[in-house]
Automatic annotation (TrEMBL), chain A:
Single GO MF descriptor: transmembrane transporter activity
Compartments reported by the entry: Cell membrane
Transmembrane segments: 6-27, 34-54, 66-89, 101-121, 146-165, 194-217, 229-256, 263-284
InterPro entries: ABC_transp_permease (IPR001851), BCAA_transport_permease (IPR052157)
Pfam families per record: BPD_transp_2 (PF02653)
Superkingdom: Bacteria
Membrane topology note: Multi-pass membrane protein
Record-level GO BP terms: amino acid transport
Source organism of the structure: Micromonospora arida
This protein's name: Branched-chain amino acid ABC transporter permease
Gene Ontology CC terms: plasma membrane
Keyword Transmembrane included in the entry's annotation: yes
Lineage, highest ranks first: Bacteria, Bacillati, Actinomycetota, Actinomycetes, Micromonosporales
Amino acid sequence: MGTVILLALTGLGLAALYFLVASGLSLVFGLADVLNFAHGLFLGVGAYGTWWAAGNLPGAGPDGFGFVFAVAFGVAAGTLVAILVELVLIRPLYSRTIEQVLVTVGLSLAGVALLQATWGADARPFPRPDWTRQVTGIFGAQVPNGGLLLIIAAVLVLGAILAFLRWTRYGLVIRAGVENREMVTALGIDVRKAFTLVFAIGGAAAALAGALGGVYFGTVSPGQGGSLLIFAFIVVVIGGMGSVVGSAYAAVVVGLVQQFVNYYGTSGLGDICVVGLLAVVLLLRPQGIAGKVATA
Amino acid sequence: MEPVLSVEELSVRISGLHILQGVSFTVAPTGVTVLLGRNGVGKTTTLRAIVGLTPPAGEVRGTIRMGAQSLLARPTHRLVRGGLGYVPEDRCVFAGLTVAENLRLAERRGTTPAYDKVFALFPELDRRGRQRAGSLSGGQQQMLAIGRVLLNDNRLLLVDEPTKGLAPKVVTEVAEVLERVAESVPVLLVEQNLAVVRRLARDAVVLAAGKVAWTGDARELLLETALTKSLLGVGSAEVAAPSARSEPAGPAVAREDQH
């Protein structure tokens, strides 16, 4: 029983990580029709920003408020990079899908190369509070606190995004834009501002995933963003492009399937099962769990 | 009187198709000007070019002016904020949003939305504020699409096939609303239902094969049975059908391919 609970909670921790990356990716694709392969870069910037701030920024550190400050710095850096990417590289290329893909793929490769050139290719130990290295007993299972932190963060981010979409003017614009972007402009709304906003939201969530992923894995490396991005794309497709709630459901399914199958089957079989699940969803329900709706 | 809109030598190419080939016409500053023609001649393309919604792959040439202001190359949201209201074909309400949210989306910053006017015209929208727009009937969705635009002051309304696919009773209601709206703002209307055209339109512009084939008084056109038949492809009995007040679901212009 303890093993099942442990696998379930570590699977949910993984799901939380996928959701943090996938939620922004899904909103960006749903609203702006941009398949952003550079989204993993925002995660890398968040992770390295937090790592750098904890060691170098006055007031920041690996513990207490200093760690919160370091994470805030990493998230701010990831958000800033996301906004700059949208304004400088993506905005001139809206409606030019091939060029967008080339630019974002190129940017993701260049971003990894830049991180490697600056801080080396090897994984570095991530500064993290001592309590995140410890475990909490839940129904007989010793669950790592780093995973629980990820779950709590993902739930808070999900709630915050849904509240934003439900209760704010820009949230309304984004929900409408995911359905019919052209009609939003035909009502006199400059939808490009909403594009920048969803990039900022996506960048912030991915950067947070980078920072908390560093806590979860205990290390930070240049290629971390790219490998997580593959599963985040799977989550987006299974959940439905543009649906934050769909991404949350899909992340839970993918995280749990990976964790349980990898444990009870052969290591790596879980990843194959997830790809199989993606194929089944594409065949039976190509619009994903939730279809193209920004809230549900 | 100066026209509210003038279109000169408008040409639109989309994906290699030369859909409009030098279209020129004007819209009077009052009443309804109707844009007629068989399906596929470029009526919707004309409206979309005016409001700046030609696809990015398309090429637009010519001149479009509202008063002294040139509209070409200006982004759609600026044209709409400048007083160009657009009710698209097939309503395009946001199905996942409630009626109230659809209306709230149309509010413009710095202006007071005219909810009183909209709810006076469409009381049902007030009663169904919390209902998802996707669950409304076709007629209710059309009312929402028109109501959304009427929340704001407009200098010109572009309305694309508002009665398409609606039940006869609802066609009458929509025609009544447009008649009342046209008392305060000029309307450029694309419409296939000739009974509605007869009821609403003062001026007519007929397109054929991407060009203007006829312009003039709409009622005069509908009285010319042979001309109407040749331009719109309807039978003489259909052209001579009575007024829309009693039989709103009148004959429709012949349908061919669609852009």
